[in-house]
Amino acid sequence: MFELTGKYEKISRQSLKIISQIAYDVSGIILSEKKEDLIFSRLNKRLRENKLSSFEEYCIFIQSNPDERLQMIASLTTNVTAFYRERHHFQYLSKLIKNKFIDRIKDGEELRIWSAACSSGEEAYSAAMTVSDVLIPLAVAKIKILGTDIDNGMLGRSREGVYSIEEKNSIPLEIFNKFCIEKENQFTFKKDILEKLRFKSLNLIAEWPFESKFHAIFCRNVAIYFDKMTREKLWLRLAQRLHVGGELYIGHSERISNPDMLSLRPFGLNSYKKVK
Ligand SMILES: C[S@@+](CC[C@H](N)C(=O)[O-])C[C@H]1O[C@@H](n2cnc3c(N)ncnc32)[C@H](O)[C@@H]1O
Predict the structure, then answer these.
(1) Residue 19 belongs to some domain of the structure
(2) CA distance 198 to 121
(3) Which of the 8 DSSP states describes residue 7?
(4) Rg of the Cα trace of the chain?
(5) In the predicted model, what is the mean pLDDT of residues 252-256?
(6) 258 & 136 share domain
(7) Which of the listed residues 87, 120, 145, 150 should we mutate to test ligand 1's pocket, taking the one with most ligand atoms within 8 A of CB?
């Protein structure tokens, strides 16, 4: 047992073990021993909301309550994101469309991009603005951007598509002027952008209920929370969902150790091209 300040003063090793195991089984997230303080402080609120008086009670509660398990995962994960985060990936995406796929899109192929683990949606909207900017002359281009996450609260915010004006600074000004609409202290997107996006609940370590292939996949800053086995399986499944010539963008502290075996060729920063 160890003690921490707060309303609930104790969390036993046993409760920590149960919580970590459930987090791993449900989402693939590894909670190391070092995360004790984080688990305690983030889950305190879940105990209060469920009117439970101890972590032992909470452990019993989550075992029979799938919704609360998802709430628990949401409380334990970070949702930090930003428009045009790791900007080079959006430059690669723009080049990919111009240099590789534009003729196929002109001929009617639907352009499909996936923001896997999209959090509050900034990555998906940045991708939508990037490709729309390239494809503006092709008024009829069909563009579909899919944003997915395990956290339903974040998906709600993504679908709403309304952001605080402070986030405007992350968007290049000419892009903002072309695709965004400012209202009071917030902004949203023009209809043309909004209608290209769909946000769906998806657990990356579970079944994916779609067969489609994508021209580009963003899967950034989520695999970092998984163990090696879960990460490698994820890279393989993502590689299988890319069109030949398509690109996978991963987070700045992530790396694919065996890209050849997945028919991926590394290039630039944290980026991989599907070669066959
Ligand atoms: C740090 S955010 C990354 C957001 C964005 N990709 C970026 O790089 O800016 C991590 C996201 O991963 C999501 N996540 C964690 N485990 C997941 C899982 N098993 N399946 C799907 N999403 C997951 C979290 O809900 C969170 O929104």
Answers:
(1) yes
(2) 10
(3) S
(4) 20
(5) 97
(6) yes
(7) 150
pLDDT at 176 over 80: yes
> Across residues 209-230, what is the average pLDDT?
97
Chain length of the chain: 276
The CATH number of whichever domain residue 109 belongs to comes to: 3.40.50.150
Q: What is the pLDDT of residue 9?
A: 65
Give dist(CA 127, CA 145) in Å, integer: 8
Into how many domains does the chain fold? 2
In a domain, 83, yes or no: no
Residue with tokens 């079944």: 207
- Which domain-ending residue is among 76, 109, 136? 76
56, 101: one domain: no
Distance 117 CA to ligand 1 centre (A): 4
For 188-198, how does the pLDDT look when each residue is reduced to its tens digit (9 = 90+)? Answer: 999 999 999 99
Alpha carbon nearest to ligand 1 atom 15, residue: 222
What is the domain extent for residue 246? 88-274
